Amino acid sequence: MQNPGLLITAVLAATLGINSIAYAESSYQFKINGLSGPLYDNVAIYLQKYSDADNMPGVRFQATVEQEVHTAMQALGYYDNQVTVTHNAAQPRLLQVNVKTGEPVRIAKSDIELSGDATTDADFKALLAAQAPKQGQILHHGAYDGFKSALKSLAMRKGYFDADFELARLEVAPELKQAFVHVHFNAGKRYKFGAVSFSGNQIDEPRLQSLVPFAENEYYLASELGEFNQALAATGWFSSILVEADTSEMQDFTLPINVALEPERRNIIETGIGYSTDVKTRLKLNWNKPWLNSAGHSLSSKLALSEIEQSVEAAYKLPLANVATDFYQVQLGFRNRDNQDTKSRESNLVLERHWLLRSDWYRIASVRWLYEDFVQADQNDTISLIMPGLSYSRTKQSGGSMPSSANRLLFGVEVSDESWGSDASFFRLRGRAGWIGSAGNNHRFVTRVDAGAILMESLSQLPPSLRFFAGGDNSIRGYGYETVSPRNSDNELTGGRYMVTSALEYQYRVKGNWWLAAFTDYGSAWDDSPDWVQGVGMGVRWASPVGPVRIDFAWGLDDPGRGFQLHFALGPEL
């Protein structure tokens, strides 16, 4: 007797083989003739569902395909068409779809009526001008449905909560090649914001009220609720935020806003490890206290350790009446550096006042006390400086962590004078400009210019932390970190009075979040006359969730530092 197990196995194998052949043969291909553009695309989309359908070839299936083609073309206003579907006996699953289009149906009457408060609303007028079906246009069912959806969506975003269609009807007379559109939309009254109430908050309510971007009895805008939510999140005071309209308490077309909050933890500790070619491996430890009291004061502290630099700093933040944009900050920091021909130990105590101006410029006024004990080349000294400063910056970008467009501007000045107790008198100016642009989805351009100047008689009275050095992954690639600088007679780096660097980079998307880059950098740091140097190279970019990761292979074309450099960095490109 035969082994029953072997017999069952053979039957299963044969069955699976038959099924696999049937599946392979069930895939249809359609060759569409006589169409192009949107008509071709729409028909192709409608027929996609039959590509792997388990249908037997034959007259019945061909009739089904013909009906699908008619339906796809009617959606775009073509009702009078001749469609034939044929196949070759040798290739029964390759279907020839031949289409001859007739005259399209056009809109003979466009009866659009808008009533309620929306009749004077500029956004509704713009929507009607851009999307409302117009007499003489070819009928497009999707555009008609999209227009109705856009009306409802705009009404909800702008607070017309009672809005509805009094009439929405599309009549088609295919034999006349005519369509009649009737859309009567009554937006009703536009609601206004009511009072904003908070629950679960540990911060004084007046502080929270300053974050509200709208006033009571202003017209409702959904975008302002989103802006409000972001402002609350930006404070760092809360672990949970729920901003919602209280529809159960609506009166006289006003909508109260309830905000449910949960306090953030009193202590947050973060650790991390990173690497860049400038500072090598860096260990980080951050300890933050997001809120210290009901006034919203906060404390943050940072410890960073690397081979060439060790630093610790703490910052105490005191928000003012306008919490989101105005605050005082006191910073205390210590840093030890041992890099190239620089050895320094510096202490900084800074008082800052921060503003966000209506022009979107960010302004910081500061007073800084700097004490630095250093060795720079052949100079060994200790310097104490008191420096008032003022800076303006503005950053705009769109497109996520690796933006498709962005620009950044920064201008700053610090002043020191012996008359108020400093060891030196000078003006120190810094400026930085950057731009990112795109051409389509696969081409990006990045440019940067960084410049600085110190106005004083001799740099000997200035510590190395205020002098200018160039070179490194955010400067002139192709040269080591801070190796572009004036040198003394022993070829030691002394730091410069002036500095200008520039970068021009082209990036091409290879696939997904991966890009290739080609770049050139140019610049110098000098005292009396610049000794310009240039670097060129290629790189790889990865748009990671936390920002661009950059690996650059760069060559310096001029002395000093002629040769190859590998640069690795994580963070914003500007």
UniProtKB/TrEMBL annotation:
<dbReference type="GO" id="GO:0009306">
    <property type="term" value="P:protein secretion"/>
</dbReference>
<dbReference type="InterPro" id="IPR000184">
    <property type="entry name" value="Bac_surfAg_D15"/>
</dbReference>
<keyword id="KW-0732">Signal</keyword>
<dbReference type="InterPro" id="IPR035243">
    <property type="entry name" value="TamA_POTRA_Dom_1"/>
</dbReference>
<comment type="subunit">
    <text>Interacts with TamB to form the translocation and assembly module (TAM).</text>
</comment>
<keyword id="KW-1134">Transmembrane beta strand</keyword>
<comment type="similarity">
    <text>Belongs to the TamA family.</text>
</comment>
<keyword id="KW-0472">Membrane</keyword>
<protein>
    <recommendedName>
        <fullName>Translocation and assembly module subunit TamA</fullName>
    </recommendedName>
</protein>
<feature type="domain" description="Bacterial surface antigen (D15)">
    <location>
        <begin position="270"/>
        <end position="571"/>
    </location>
</feature>
<feature type="domain" description="TamA POTRA">
    <location>
        <begin position="30"/>
        <end position="100"/>
    </location>
</feature>
<dbReference type="GO" id="GO:0097347">
    <property type="term" value="C:TAM protein secretion complex"/>
</dbReference>
<dbReference type="InterPro" id="IPR039910">
    <property type="entry name" value="D15-like"/>
</dbReference>
<dbReference type="GO" id="GO:0009279">
    <property type="term" value="C:cell outer membrane"/>
</dbReference>
<keyword id="KW-0812">Transmembrane</keyword>
<dbReference type="Pfam" id="PF17243">
    <property type="entry name" value="POTRA_TamA_1"/>
</dbReference>
<dbReference type="InterPro" id="IPR010827">
    <property type="entry name" value="BamA/TamA_POTRA"/>
</dbReference>
<feature type="domain" description="POTRA">
    <location>
        <begin position="191"/>
        <end position="257"/>
    </location>
</feature>
<dbReference type="Pfam" id="PF01103">
    <property type="entry name" value="Omp85"/>
</dbReference>
<dbReference type="Pfam" id="PF07244">
    <property type="entry name" value="POTRA"/>
</dbReference>
<keyword id="KW-0998">Cell outer membrane</keyword>
